Amino acid sequence: MGNLLEVNNLSISFTQYVQGLNRHDSKVISDLTIDINESEIVAVLGSSGSGKSLLAHSILGILPYNANVTGELKYKGAVLDQGLKERLRGKEICLIPQSVNYLDPLMKVSEQAIGECKDETEHKEKKLRQREIFSKYGLDESVDDLYPFELSGGMARKVLLSTALIGDPDLLIADEPTPGLDAKSVEETIQDIRNLKEHGKGVLLITHEIDVALKTADRIAIFYSGYVIEINDVENFKDADNVLHPYTKALINALPRNGFKLTEGVQPLGEVTGCPYYENCPICLDKCENNIPELEEHDGVMIRCFNFKGANDGA
Ligand SMILES: Nc1ncnc2c1ncn2[C@@H]1O[C@H](COP(=O)(O)OP(=O)(O)OP(=O)(O)O)[C@@H](O)[C@H]1O
Ligand SMILES: [Mg+2]
Fold first, then answer.
1. Number of domains in the chain
2. What are the residues whose beta carbon lies below 5 Å from ligand 2 (ion)?
3. Which residues does residue 219 pair with via DSSP β-bridges, in sequence order?
4. Does position 152 have pLDDT exceeding 90, yes or no?
5. Which residues of 99-113 are buried (b: 16+ CB within 10 A; e: fewer)?
6. CB within 10 Å: which end of the chain, N or C, has fewer?
7. 50 Cβ inside 6 Å of ligand 1
8. Residue 94, domain member (yes or no)
9. How far is the CA of 50 from the centre of ligand 1 (A)?
C-alpha cells in the first residue's frame, strides 16, 4: 500500500495587527503530522474552528496570504511545494470545498465542473464525464445551464462533489461533504467515497460528525485545539476502552448510544504552554500543565498524552 500524502509537523499561524500597531501571531494548527495511503480513507474529526479547513487549504495551496506555514508536505514521495500543488490541483488532488461559495457565481455549473481544457477534444471528453456524474447524482440536463444562485443548497453540494470527481483524483480532500444533504444523499456520498478507496484512491475526509467518520473511514485523526491528539483505527472507536486519549474517550461516551455523557469545558483558543487538554482532563498530571506531549506511536496508535493507559509502562 503506497503512501500518497504525508504531512509532517505542519503549523499554521496568522499574523494580525491589533489597532494597526501590535503584531500578534495566533497559531491555529500546531505540529500536525498525518499520512494517507492509497486505498485508504482517513477522517479528520474536530470541532468548529479547530483548523480542519486550513489543513485542507494548505494541501491544495490555497491558504490566505497572511498565513504563516512551517512543516513539510509530501505527495507520492515528492516535496509538495506551491508549484506542485498548483499543477496537481483539480487533477490528481481534488477538493470538495466546505462552502458552496467556492462556486463561481458568473459561470454555468456544468462549465465550472468541466474546468479548463487544453482543446476541444478534452472538452468533449470531460463534458461526457460531467453529464454522467451529474446524472448519477440526480442532476438532470436542465441543471447544466444553471448558475449557482439558481441551485438549492443540496443541489449545490452535489455540484461540488461531482466537480471534484470529474477531475478523477488520486487524492480527494473532502471538507465536510455531507451537511445539508438529505439522508439518501449522505449515504450516496459515503458510498462514493468508499468506491474511490476501492479503486485505490486516498481520501482525507474532514468532518465534525463522528457517525460519518465511523461509517466511512479506515483511520480517524482527532483534532483538538489545533493539535492531532490521537490517530487510531476505526474499529477501536467502537468502545471507549479501546482508544487512548481521554478526549477521544469522552467523544465516544458522548454518543447518543453511549448515553450522551457530555464533557465539561471548552477548547482553549490560541497558544497553550502545556497539553491542550490540560484544563478539561480527568487524568492530568502535574507535568501536563507546562509541557506539551509529542505525538508518539504506541502499538500502532498515534497518541499525544503523558498519561494514557500504557504510557508509563517500562518507564
Ligand atoms: N484568514 C484568516 N485570518 C485569521 N484567522 C483565520 C483565518 N482563516 C481562519 N482563521 C482561524 O483559524 C481557525 C481555524 O479555522 P478553520 O476554518 O480551519 O476551522 P474548521 O475546523 O474548518 O472549522 P469548521 O468546522 O467551522 O469548518 C479559526 O479559529 C479561524 O478563525
Ligand atoms: Mg471548516
1. 1
2. 52-53, 98
3. 42, 233
4. no
5. eeebbeeeebbbebb
6. C
7. yes
8. yes
9. 7
